[in-house]
Amino acid sequence: MARHLNKQINFLEMVPVLRDGCRVVYENGAANLAIPRTSLLERIAIKWFKQAKEHHYRLDALGECVLKHCDGNYRVSEISAKLTETFGEAAEPVVPRLLKFLQELDAHDLVTLHIK
User: Fold this and answer.
1) Alpha-carbon distance 111 to 107, whole Å?
2) In this structure, are residues 24 and 69 in contact, taking their beta carbons and an 8 Å threshold?
3) Which residues have C-beta within 8 Å of that of residue 87, sequence separation ≥ 6?
4) Long-range contacts, stretch 76-85, CB < 8 angstroms, 24+ apart
5) Element (H, E) at 20
6) Which are the contacts of 83, defined by CB distance < 8 A and separation ≥ 6?
7) How much is the CA Rg of the chain, to the nearest whole Å?
8) Does 68 have pLDDT greater than 90?
9) pTM of the entire structure?
10) What is d(CA 109, CA 90) in angstroms, rounded to the nearest whole number?
């Protein structure tokens, strides 16, 4: 968990923000997370081998809902409440699932978590 000046931060009070360039896109009725390919090697592959400029990862309904709220306006606790309101029992256990999802996104530098 994040720490600041030896004080434990409440993860539920943090605000996730999707990395610049990342976005939710819709293709054939399905939601996908689009991640730009920006490293030097990827840019060379895009230019010389005509590869895609983005990676696309299919999202389930829960993942789509979470990422749509990763805009800097919602705390993790508010996203959790939205998931419960929208999906009910299908989202359970909502808090552990949400925290794990956000930790994975954070580990891959797809979101940043801010203290509000």
Assistant:
1) 8
2) no
3) 61, 62, 65
4) 76/11, 76/12, 76/13, 76/14, 76/15, 76/16, 76/102, 76/113, 77/12, 77/13, 79/16, 80/12
5) none
6) 62, 65, 66, 91, 94, 98
7) 16
8) yes
9) 0.85
10) 27
Cβ count within 10 A of residue 60: 10
Opening angle at CA 75, ends 8 and 90, nearest 5 = 105
Name the burial class of residue 66, with classes exposed (0-12), middle (13-18) and buried (19+) by CB atoms within 10 angstroms of its CB: buried
Helices (H), 26-93: 40-49, 61-68, 76-87
What is the spatial distance between Cα 25 and Cα 1, in angstroms, rounded to a whole number? 30
Q: What is the reported pLDDT for 7?
A: 66
